[in-house]
Hints:
The structure holds 2 protein chains of 2 kinds. Chain A is an alpha/beta fold. Chain A contains 11 helices and 9 strands. Chain A starts with a helix and ends in a 5-residue tail after the last helix. By secondary structure, chain B is α/β, with parallel strands linked by helices. At the A-B interface, α1 and α10 of A face α1, α8 and α9 of B.
Amino acid sequence: MHRRRFLQYSAATAALCAAPRVAIGQSPGAPGFIDTNVYLGRWPFRRLPLDAAGRLAESLRAQGITEAWAGSFDALLHRDLDAVNTELADTCKAHPLFHPIGAINPKLPGWRETLRKCHETFDMHGVRLHPNYHGYTLDDPDFTALLAEARKRKLLVQIAVRMEDTRTQHPKVAVPDVDPAPLLASLADLPGARVQLLNALRTVSNALLLQRLGKFDVHFEIAMLESIEGVRRFLDRTPGTKLAFGSYAPFFYPESATLKLRESILSEDELSALQFKNATALLPT
Amino acid sequence: MIWDLHCHLTRALRGETPAEKAAHLIEVGDRHGIERFCVYMGIEWKRDPDPDNFPKQNDDILAAVEAHPDRLFGFVYLNPKHTRKSLDELNRCVRDGPMVGVKLWVAHKCAAPELDPIVERAATLRVPIFQHTWIKTTGNYPGESTPMDLAVLARRYPEVPLICGHTGGNWELAIPAIRDHPNVSIGLGGFDPTAGVTEFAARALGADRILWGSDAPGRSFASQLSKVVGADVPETDKEKILGGNLKKLLTPILKNKGMEV
């Protein structure tokens, strides 16, 4: 009896993961299910069960994901980001589910050339920043310069607000969360700049700030969105904000994000916005 | 069968009364197939509640359990700094009432001798003790226990079932700290769904000592369920972790109360 009920649950979970594909259709040319927050490479502080690209791709596909935007964990501490981005691009070529998102550190000399390579050599549609690991805040002029350059190239700028709960960090690498509030001033001067905040919604809970950011081209994703019916509550509390799907796999179990879609009652429009429409809006036109 | 070890009735839930809030918890839990919910502490919390406060919090739980007796299990919330009142509450809510477990939070470290009368009474009543634990890089509250503190208590009372709440947050440190105390299980709820935790725990402790819980409504059921659904452990272990182990742990008190197991 218990076994059967558990299997029913497992089947229901599988059905959940399959449901989005059914809902949005998988006919040729139909849009897919986009995960905007994935990492490749090695997390510096422990091995993760899915930190091999092949296994991660397999797991994400099992969740119904058809496209995953991948940054590199190596970007946190490495200084040669050209090498990091080259390896990331090569891995993504070998595993086409992944689309590489290059790493830039505007405090490093030569970042403009690294950005150029991301865009022109690797044909990346965005870059991912880790300001807390690279030692700058979002009112830093170097960050604003990067944002301006990315805007000129029509590149998406993803900013990782946190990589790990500050309570569980290695004591020798205790890194504060990124404060997104200074973005308001930068974006006022750079209309059209496209930004997505990753792993932001556990720490940035100020609804007013979220709505003000949302008035610019600032997007969010659900990986660290918590509380019961978290997606429904977020959409109700901050209407008009642009929310995409993100799992933060392999640091998190990928099922965490897909099960969140099951936990909240969502309209068909809301679901398709989460699954691909809002992510698609982040791509260069 | 999914039984949730770790739930609350706080403001994040819809409704005004404990019964209404519990109804919302159950409604959302049903979407995941969760059958039973262990609930503790009131709608409003205090880290170091005085002897007038924690009985009121327990009243909230009693009201919720009365409204949903087939879905909720209540754990009595105690403050070991107030031993006499804590023992009275144990009698009122567990011996003479419907509650089936003890919840200890952050008022007093669990290695302290003030815990002893509470643990001994809980043992007599055959109820498990859920102890909140964390190892915070950013620093614990003054009375907040670590898994190492729980290991000290476990050494004093090797026959009493203890639960290491939140798996200590920093689970790579917590699990080895309680590994040598077979009476200590871990509660998987209330921390980020960091991949590998369940596999690590299953290797170190065995699946029989892992209890699934959510810490809803502060956490989503979704993120917390993923720790089991997404783990690379055998399906039979998942069944135990999601509910079988908790049912086994509560069986003595449920039988004592004549509840159907």
